[in-house]
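Fold this sequence, please.
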Amino acid sequence: QVQLVESGGGSVQAGGSLRLSCAASGSIISINAMGWYRQAPGKERELVATTTSGGSPTYADSVKGRFTISRDNAKNTVYLQMNSLKPEDTAVYYCNALIRVAYYRSNDYWGQGTQVTISS
């Protein structure tokens, strides 16, 4: 069984910074991709950032230049460094990973979410 656990959320004033972490554990053969999504109240879930082992990271236009995604492959962990935070960034942030769990199978997993609240 594979589990993703997020941490690092909290409350911060506009202009501040937070660093989110997501660690994957369980029966993992390899991780194809990891990323972050967020969902604000009354809004649809949206992509924040994704990364692969060999490809370039991708970012939502709204966070480019402010957020940075990175991975520690040895720890099966993905990070999201969030700088210059804005009230519009307030949301529950979810970790996502495409993980190979068997020779013939890769599954998409989600973390439980971590709340990020930015005050003006």
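DSSP finds no helices and eleven strands in the chain. Residues 96 and 110 are 5 Å apart (CA to CA).
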